[in-house]
């Protein structure tokens, strides 16, 4: 049995993000991506360190994102901190340690339950399923999706608590950028039909797809390990695999007719609570093609809580718990069906976990044994006549034969070991020839020291091949580390020199990129890793000096821009930021430029210079600041529009009163935007103006065509409105102007009033017949409306300036 390893080779200094040193102790487990270690300083945490090249850039971004948006649930063993080496490279992460946890599949069958958790009953299985649902629900509510739902990434402790592990493979979406970091793996037997046969690294998973896998796990927990799509295939030919049955929807417990029936020794579905039966039907049949119909983790948690409450104890075996909807104990029936093997045995039959051993085989029927197999020929040994002697020759034969056998076996064993070594060398040569350099190097490390010299040259060539691969993928530091592991640096000197040049060029680009991104310390560290001989010390110093000077100059310009901005001099601030170099400083300068352009926009708004404000606004890149200033621009635009409409409306009324109908119409057409705001002007609102303009144009037409009676009738109506104070004095003056112009000064309101003044009858009600006849010859005629008509005379006289 392999003993747990101590601190991994090559890792001595580990730190958290805050710089706290971390010491690893025992190796607790090993998987395809990395290894799990105990932490000496923090026994409640464990460390996961990735194998070489297993932590991808997307995986690193996912770790940072999970620290920013943690699941915040003790049942989820999520990363709590990152682990870095002395160069600042992320090697793994820390997560909570799960105490005494067993894989979920250990609870499926009576044998594994008896060995791991012997006291568990059907009640405990319900509670485990409910706790599993609660943990998945908490994960979904935090924006995570498990993706790879299976029985191996869930642990159960003796308290029936469920812990989700391998959380670094979960799918998570960045709430700021919207980028989805996917889960690229999955087990077919837990994968919903819509994802069967697809590449998981190209699919964005959903909680509804997790719900399918969760339902499979709950079904197996409560149905003695039976898969919901497993069963007896009723058609001829080879039975389809589980994933093919999932794809076809062959759920044997549903309402549809499918060519599969439940296995004879599987528990009946009626063992489950009716509410659970309904949820399984929704998931595996109704939700087969419509994922949105599948029960959520919250639905399962509620139903499982209700199902657990309804469990009752069997009178024959108190460890048998079953639903109150059943007439008898299904576990007693199942024990009898299984020939006495109880799924939940009583206390007297429960034994502590013991090492696995083969059960005693059943006695087999005796078979006939041929005597020649076990009995020697009778002639040779049947009747010995001579007594046994110590110095007899058979003992010499036996001893000599034994020695020969020992020596011969030793020679054979030596030959066998040599053959194994030759096979190892051949395997390494094949791996090198096929370009599998990583496996080649692993094989070289596993050979004994006595064979190491034979494969040294092959190992060096594998290091060279691996270095070429790393250079091609842009991993220049790792490629340089491969070259430093060569046992014979004189091997393929031309190839090594060429790789050194490529690595130097790549590291210089990487250092320049780090400097441009605002990481001068990282840039200098990468610069120092450039291989000797490819860059002279003078060149290194000159490049470092240029970076330092450039950084200081950018910092000076940035501070000058900040000062100008604080002094309300945005133009100077913009000029300073435009001189900044490198991506980092340009990004910092853009933030200052946005603030400077914002000041210019505010100045233009204060001056009500709308066009200038819009020009400055277009230069702002910050969407939040742009949205805030756009709102202010909209307010100014509405105010200026309202002001312009008021001026146009007033000009239109003035033109109307002057009798210039064309000019009034021109100003009226200049109204734009939200004209309804001008309705607050009352009698001077736009709609009133349009009506008045139409009416006076019509009056002008009647007068020009000598339709005096029609003109007189409409004018009398206007005078009635004037008497009721519904027409302004300006309109009465317009009436008089139109009548006077079209009648050559012979008719109009003014002429009538002047005649009344001459006759001294202004405002009088009793007129002589001659005076009445004379007034009737004038247009428009006087209104015969009693005292109102008399008062109208004085109002008209005041309006026309005759008093």
Q: What is the fourth-level CATH superfamily of the largest domain?
A: Transferase(Phosphotransferase) domain 1
Q: Structurally, how many domains make up the residues?
A: 6
Q: Would you identify the regions where 5 or more consecutive residues have pLDDT less than 50?
A: 1-7, 350-357, 364-392, 405-409
Distance between the termini: 127 Å
**Gyration radius over CA:** 49 Å
Q: How many strand elements?
A: 17
Proportion of helical residues: 40-55%
The CATH C-level name of the largest domain is Mainly Alpha
| Secondary-structure-derived class | alpha+beta
Q: Calculate the mean pLDDT score and round it.
A: 84
Remind me, CATH topology of the largest domain? Transferase(Phosphotransferase), domain 1
- Form type: elongated
Task: Give the strand order of the largest sheet, numbering strands 1, 2, ... along the chain.
Answer: 3-4-5-7-6
Tally of alpha and pi helices: 28
């Amino acid at each position: 049995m392999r003993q747990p390893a101590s601190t991994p080779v090559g890792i001595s200094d580990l730190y958290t993000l805050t710089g706290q040193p971390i010491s690893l102790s025992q190796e607790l487990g090993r998987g395809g991506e990395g290894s799990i270690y105990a932490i000496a300083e923090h026994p409640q945490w464990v460390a996961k360190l990735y194998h070489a090249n297993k932590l991808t850039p997307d995986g690193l971004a996912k770790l940072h994102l999970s620290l920013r948006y943690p699941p915040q649930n003790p049942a989820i063993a999520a990363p709590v901190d990152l682990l870095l080496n002395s160069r600042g490279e992320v090697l793994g992460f820390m997560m909570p340690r799960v105490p005494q946890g067993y894989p979920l599949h250990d609870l499926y069958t009576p044998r594994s339950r008896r060995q791991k958790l012997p006291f568990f009953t059907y009640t405990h299985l319900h509670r485990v399923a409910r706790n599993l649902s609660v943990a998945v629900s908490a994960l979904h509510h935090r924006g995570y999706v498990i993706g790879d739902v299976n029985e191996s990434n869930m642990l159960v402790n003796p308290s029936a608590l469920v812990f989700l592990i391998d959380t670094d493979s979960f799918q998570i979406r960045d709430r700021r950028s919207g980028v989805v970091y996917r889960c690229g793996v999955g087990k077919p037997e837990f994968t919903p039909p819509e994802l069967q046969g697809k590449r998981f690294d190209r699919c964005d998973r959903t909680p509804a797809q997790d719900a399918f896998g969760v339902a499979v796990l709950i079904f197996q927990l409560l149905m003695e390990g039976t898969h919901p799509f497993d069963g007896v295939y009723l058609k001829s030919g080879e039975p389809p695999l589980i994933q093919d049955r999932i794809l076809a929807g062959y759920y044997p417990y549903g309402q549809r007719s499918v060519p599969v029936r439940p296995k004879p020794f599987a528990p009946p579905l009626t063992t489950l609570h009716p509410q659970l039966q309904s949820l399984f039907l929704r998931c595996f049949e109704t939700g087969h093609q419509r994922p949105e119909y599948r029960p959520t983790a919250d639905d399962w948690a509620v139903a499982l809580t209700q199902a657990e409450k309804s469990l009752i104890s069997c009178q024959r075996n108190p460890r048998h718990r079953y639903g109150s909807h059943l007439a008898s104990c299904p576990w007693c029936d199942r024990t009898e069906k299984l020939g006495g093997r109880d799924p939940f045995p009583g206390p007297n039959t429960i034994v502590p976990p013991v090492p696995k051993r083969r059960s005693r085989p059943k006695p087999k029927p005796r078979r006939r044994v041929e005597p020649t197999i076990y009995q020697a020929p009778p002639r040779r040994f049947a009747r010995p006549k001579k007594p046994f002697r110590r110095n007899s020759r058979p003992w010499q034969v036996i001893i000599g034969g034994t020695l020969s056998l020992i020596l011969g076996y030793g020679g054979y064993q030596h030959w066998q070991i040599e053959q194994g070594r030759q096979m190892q060398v051949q395997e390494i040569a094949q791996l090198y020839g096929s370009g599998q350099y990583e496996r080649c190097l692993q094989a070289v490390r596993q050979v004994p020291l006595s064979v190491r010299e034979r494969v040294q040259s092959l190992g060096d060539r594998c290091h060279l091949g691996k270095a070429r691969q790393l250079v091609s993928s842009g991993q220049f530091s790792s490629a340089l580390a491969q070259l430093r592991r060569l046992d014979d640096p004189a091997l393929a000197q031309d190839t090594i020199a060429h790789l050194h040049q490529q690595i130097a060029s790549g590291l210089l680009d990487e250092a320049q990129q780090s400097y441009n991104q605002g990481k001068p310390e990282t840039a200098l560290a990468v610069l120092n890793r450039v291989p000797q001989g490819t860059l002279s010390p003078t060149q290194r110093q000159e490049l470092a000096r240029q970076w330092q000077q450039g950084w200081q100059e950018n910092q000076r310009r940035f501070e000058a821009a900040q000062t100008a901005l604080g002094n309300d001099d945005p133009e100077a601030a913009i000029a300073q930021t435009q001189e900044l170099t490198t991506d980092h400083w340009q990004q910092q300068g853009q933030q200052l430029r946005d603030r400077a352009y914002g000041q210019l926009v505010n100045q233009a708004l204060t001056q009500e210079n709308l066009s200038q404000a819009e020009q400055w606004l277009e230069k702002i890149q910050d969407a939040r600041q742009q949205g805030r200033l756009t709102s202010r621009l909209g307010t100014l635009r509405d105010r200026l529009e309202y002001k312009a409409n008021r001026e146009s409306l007033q000009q239109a009324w003035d033109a109307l009163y002057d009798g210039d109908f064309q000019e009034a119409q021109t100003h009226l057409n200049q109204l734009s935007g939200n004209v309804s705001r001008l309705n607050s002007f009352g009698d001077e609102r736009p709609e009133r103006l349009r009506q008045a303009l139409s009416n006076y144009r019509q009056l002008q037409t009647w007068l020009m065509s000598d339709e005096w009676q029609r003109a007189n009738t409409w004018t009398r109506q206007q005078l009635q409105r004037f008497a009721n104070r519904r027409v302004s004095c300006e309109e009465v003056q317009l009436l008089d102007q139109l009548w006077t112009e079209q009648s050559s000064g012979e008719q109009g309101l003014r002429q009538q009033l002047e005649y009344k003044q001459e006759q001294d009858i202004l405002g009088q009600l009793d007129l002589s017949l001659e005076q009445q006849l004379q007034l009737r010859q004038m247009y428009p005629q006087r209104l015969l409306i009693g005292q109102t008509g008399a008062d109208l005379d004085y109002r008209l006289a005041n309006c026309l300036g005759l008093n």
